[in-house]
Design a protein that fits this description.
By secondary structure, the chain is of the alpha/beta class. It has a single domain (2-282), classed as Nucleoside Triphosphate Pyrophosphohydrolase (Alpha-Beta Complex). It is 28% helix and 30% strand.
Length: 283
């Protein structure tokens, strides 16, 4: 990535962002067939700390093809098995989630929600599942759960199979949907991503033990945004906007609420009097 750009949007704070080389060529008029977006889910795992809201974040390793060295929330691509029948489920139904998402069927909605639960388990070791809708969440500290986690990462196992074998149900009631973002057209790798939020469960630990990250931990949104402003942290526009929303919510509990208006948001690069800018377009 080279050069710099401005994040221009209808939000309180605009920051300088690195501009990808592909974005510069796109702005100059070079065009190519946009990549087909991959469906994905990401989860903002939050808690109330001593000095305010904290969120668990990962820094992606430098060798990643997408977003290297960037601070991100746990998440990743959907597995088609996430949307198949037979997934043990508690909480709002896939049909109810489809209504909240708008424009998709129940199976697809199930896939996004299940991908959120699976990905946050794969990347942090936190599993939003229990024996029943009213029981405590499962204790995943045993070493056997680490092996299951590795099996999910390698796609040797499915989330449905893991839950069925353990006698657990996915707790969709513990998730809130917060935003819907689409990677810009000029990027060689694109994602159609739903952003969720969940309160960090008691008696579980978030560890960030994933090969995709070289650093992980709990951070405060205000401090992380300040680090970005000083050039000490690199983040994509969706992460910045979500951190600002989290900071403004005032508490983790207040943040764990469904966002009612969920337009599809796609950043684009435009030319402005102040130079190239990353602008947010809402469809």
């Amino acid at each position: 990535m080279s050069g710099s750009s401005v994040l221009s949007r209808d939000f309180p704070v605009a920051k300088d962002l690195p501009m990808a080389g592909a974005g510069s060529r796109w702005l100059a008029g070079d065009r190519w067939e946009p990549a087909t977006p991959r469906q994905a889910s990401t989860v903002m795992l939050v808690r109330d700390g001593t000095h305010g809201t904290e969120v668990f974040m990962l820094r992606r390793v430098s060798g990643m093809a997408f977003a290297p060295n960037m601070l991100v929330f746990p998440g990743g691509g959907c597995d088609v098995r996430d949307g198949e029948p037979g997934l043990p489920w508690a909480g709002p139904s896939p049909a109810e989630w489809a209504g909240r998402f708008g424009g998709c069927g129940a199976a697809q909605a199930q896939m996004f929600v299940a991908a959120a639960v699976r990905e946050v388990f794969e990347e942090t070791g936190v599993l939003l599942a229990g024996e029943s809708p009213d029981s405590p969440l499962v204790d995943v500290s045993d070493a056997s759960w680490r092996q299951l986690r590795h099996g999910l990462v390698g796609r040797e196992l499915s989330l449905a199979g893991v839950l069925q074998d353990a006698g657990l149900v996915l707790r969709s009631d513990l998730l809130a949907v917060k935003a819907h973002w689409l990677t810009p057209e000029f990027e060689p790798r694109r994602f159609d991503t739903w952003f969720f939020a969940a309160l960090m469960p008691e008696h579980q630990q978030a560890d960030g033990e994933t090969s995709e990250a070289d650093r992980s931990g709990w951070v405060r949104p205000d401090e992380t945004l300040a680090a970005f402003g000083r050039g000490e942290a690199v983040m994509l526009p969706p992460t910045l906007v979500c951190l600002e929303d989290m900071r403004d919510a005032g508490s983790a509990q207040a943040f764990i609420r469904h966002t009612e208006h969920l337009p599809l948001i796609m950043p684009t690069i435009v030319s402005t009097p102040g130079g190239p800018a990353m602008r947010i377009s809402v469809s």
